[in-house]
Amino acid sequence: MAGNKKEEAPPTTITTTNDDKSKDIKKDVTPQLPPVEAAARRLERLYGGGSTTSKAATALPINTTKIMKKWLGASSGTAGNATMASVAACAEKTLDPSGVCVTGREILMGLCSEEDRLAVAVKKADDVTDKEEEGGDAMMEEDAAASSTTPEYLSLTCREVESWLMTLAVRIYWRAGKYTEAYDLITKGLQLLDAHLVDSGNTTTTSAGGLYPLLARMLRYRSLIMESLLTSSNDDDTYAKLCSDTRIELASRHTHAVLRRDADVSATILNLHLRELLLSDRVEQAQKLISNSTFPTDAASNNQLLRYLYYSGRVQALRLEYTQSYSNLSQCLRKCPTNTGLGFRIAVQRLLVVVQLLMGEIPDRSVFFGEGMQGELRPYLEIAQAVRRGDLAVFHETVGGHAERLRMDGTYTLISRLAHSVVKAGLRRLKTSYSRISLEDVASRLGLPSATSAEFVVAKAVRDGVIDATINHEGGYVQSHDLVDVYATVEPSEAFHRRIAYCLTTHNDAVRAMRYTPDAYKKQLEASRGLRRSREEKTDEEKAQEIEDELDDEDYEY
Q1: Dihedrals phi, psi of 470, to nearest 5 degrees
Q2: What pLDDT is stored for residue 402 in this prediction?
Q3: I need a surface site. Which of 5, 150, 177, 212 has the fewest CB within 10 A?
Q4: What 3-state class would DSSP assign to 412?
């Protein structure tokens, strides 16, 4: 009997030797949820919901804002592939018809017919995007197992899922060109979201932290839809009325976001204000907004930080602050993701090239041949070549040929300032090539209308220090001076002084940061209020001094 028992293999050895086959069997047997519904139920589990989680675990405090941000990033692939039917079907299956989201459920279900909702096929795990497949087979099996045990309607995340589905529906309308329907839907979504925020503030059982990232997303979608309405209708009065109606609302929302330290909403609204001011050509008001507001650089998302750097760089370029603009745009381009956002990177690179030309620098040729940028940057390459040649006639011809494209890009105003840079570049080349040249030849080579105009241009260049020359008015020519050794001037010492001052400033800032610790003011505040620290808060030297004093007192008593 004992020998027979040893020969028999335990039933578990079948599954351990064929793990891959058993996983395939589980995948085939267990039904899979549609991607949108699976993402919604995954958020419920992240919040601590679901029948598999104990009540004690759901009572634990969690950072809902952080969870919502990560979940939105992981569900970006699902959001991009969502359809109106899948959104409506998810609202029907996850939102309780007798709960707090009954209004949003009816709105979402009314976006498509019942036949379309029923026709939503159950997708397999292979159809889910790469971002949601990071967990591999384990995550898919977890979703499948939860689908059979999860309640039919969501309880903890119904408000968040309702707002998320609203953003998906708005995004589908906006991409399809249905701007009026998208604007009406986003208005209703904001009203429902504000009502949920009020309800969450009146109760202690629910947290509104997960709704604020969705609020920021809704506000951005509304701004994009308003711009699309302006483009489609070409009615400036309608856009001005929409902007005036929302500007006061955004200012109020920004104030409340700053007071509750909500970096997402405050950063989004600040960028929306800057975008709207730039579209309406109110550069000075945009500069006042930048100078009188503080962007949450440490807490804001990378996308909002990139937008802020781009808008601030554009404002500074329009205000002739080319050095600061170049710094912000360069930082923005370095922080841009390389695997996505090609359109934004092209917009930043275009503006950066123009700012470099305005600073008197010629961009590197490799800048114009980046991956996916050759066609978009071709006009700017021709303009850079014209500036480098210093021929004003060629420059005007090139700009005139691409005027419509430059106006679409929003860089025509900045490029029109390059005429002076073209003249300066041409004068430098003429000075290097000729020690003496007539004003008529200068006018013909630079494309100027007459010798008198060339005389004024050369005089201004000499006064600005562009060239070192003398104008002979009687002879009508320009006499260049001999090249002076730069090391015989004070320029090297001034450059050395700037570098040393920068190093000393960095050193002083580091010493100041080490000397004044972040919590030093608390100790001074306690000391000023007469509060004595406990024995545990005292330093080792103070404790040793107290022990010595006690021993001295004991010796004195004896």
Answers
A1: -130, 135
A2: 84
A3: 5
A4: helix
